[in-house]
Amino acid sequence: MAVVRDWRVWCALAAALPVVGCSSEPPKKPVQVATPEADIAPIFRGMITSEVEFRNTSPILVSGYGLVVGLSGTGGQPLNDQIAASMERQLGLMGVGRSSDSLKGTALEGMSPAQVLRDRNVAVVQVLAALPPGAPDGSSFDVVVRAVNASSLEGGKLWTTDLRIGPPTAFGQAQSKRLAVAHGAVYTNPFAMEDPASTGYSGAAGRILGGGQVVDSQNVVLDLLTPSHARARSIVSAINSRFPAETGDRGPVARGRTDSRIEVEIPERYRRDPRSFLAMIQNLQIDQAAPEQYARRYVEAIKADPQLGERLSWALEGLGDRALPQVRELYDFPELAPQLAGLKAGARLNDARTVPFLRDVVRKSQGTVRTEAIALLGKVDAGARVDAALKELLTDNDLIVRVSTYEALADRAERAQFIYLAKLMSQYKDRGGPDLSPQELDLVARESLPPGLMQGVQRQSVYGKFLYDRVDGGTPLIYVTQQGLPRVVVFGVKDDISLKGVVSMWDGRLLIAEGDKPGEIKVQYMRPGAGVPVTTAMRATITDLVGTLARKSSSDDPRPGMDMSYAQVVAVLAKVQEAGGTVHAFATEQDRLRQQLAAAENSRDMLERPETPDEKEPLMVRRGTGEAGQPGGDDKPRVVPIR
User: Fold this and answer.
1) Over the stretch 506-558, which tens digit does the pLDDT of each residue have?
2) Bridge-based pairing state of the strands 205-214 and 261-264
3) Distances 169 to 107, 161, 164, 273 between C-alpha atoms, Å
4) Per the confidence metrics, is the pTM higher than 0.70?
5) Which end of the chain has less Cβ packing within 10 Å, N or C?
């Protein structure tokens, strides 16, 4: 009986312990617990994306209610009570209606908040934007403004507006976290303004190019699928080894918070291109011990299955320079997809050996492959030979190739100017010279490109409203941007204007005609609400016309000026070109901001892939006269209006 009793005790203990053998039933098979990599293709195992879930990698919808001033009698319409109360409270907090200097010297001086909202030159607007994922503090982005109580926002300027997560909310509703602010001149579509009846465009919506600014950056979050302190440390180490902190960074790029969460901050050097950084860390190998072996595996996988090329090119770049000997095997691979995968990784790793192969791809390929190769060529710091190779493409017959080449050259010129200014600042820092942050220095470098740079691009800021670029080479072309940095770009050596008649716009408020002297033009402009028109003569060039249209006369610069916005200047240039006043063709970007907003509004915090060539901005063109060709019929490409 003692034996039996001991057996029963043993079985009772066995019921509470993972011991098998005390039952007459056959033993059950142990349950197989799936690992995070169970459904991952073998080539991707060991990469960060196979062991974590990424968060904060989708665009974030931010918005708010703001005030646009400086309209031409198109605002001040009735508001609903909730929005009116919200805006009155906001204006009160800004000091409007009290003995403050916030409106001193303006047309709104002495008004109460309620009176300001009823003013015909003021409009309440919804401000919306798609905040780029992981965007660092100080990053800029485009915003959309939609009138709430105005028929048109043309000529208006948005006062500084807080942007919070989600749709806009009025006073009394729950307020979400403030992530950004927005302000600046409203850009209303100048091409739709020319013929609103045909486009259905009223001017009640617009955008502010680069008008948003991040004030509270949201770090990218990596949640481990299987919590582990050791694995979290390995992932943090892999990221920080590949992206060590540099000047401008606030500390290590990756920080482990718990055994299941890691936070990643976009490095300063990827401020303009956070998507590339995210694509790289997604495909970064956690084991950093043998990059050459992983490079060999990735290269052979690309050769065997070219569809893996796009993703594995990021993985190869993540391995760093030690992967280059294997990557170079793809530079002259007979199939285009593996070749491009290798050239992408090599160019992004700044391998000068990619240059002749990329030039060959540009010569022999078509469509987006050419423009992608041009962009990659622009990334390689191989000195004057890259600049020379790119400048040759400015004469290409393909408009999109020419504009892509300009963008690559402009980026290279900005980088060269940044390096030059950084060295200059370092030399004079001890002598009381300026001590600018990398972000401030970057802004300075982008606003001015002096003549004589190897890239053949020179730039000046036009009264702080937009940038004016001149590009050496190629047939005459005027190219204007409608997102990001507002720019008017003139290709070719000449910028002459030759008018045979009168250009009239805005019901005759603007008139441009041939001048009294050879090589001159006359401009007359009546600003809305002004009693006397501004009339002046100038050299008959695009450069002088742009400067006069944008200039605001002041005691420091008493020359006559029209004080036009960027959108108005673009509209005038398009009208002059349409009237045959210049041989330049006219091109502009097709809109993408609406798609970005839609993605942010529908975001479910899903992982986004990096931008591909297919997502690049298409260009629409209107042909010029003379050397640039005659205006065509309906089958010719046209400028696409923003709806």
Assistant:
1) 889 999 999 989 999 999 999 877 778 999 999 999 999 999 999 998 888 89
2) unpaired
3) 28, 13, 9, 31
4) yes
5) N
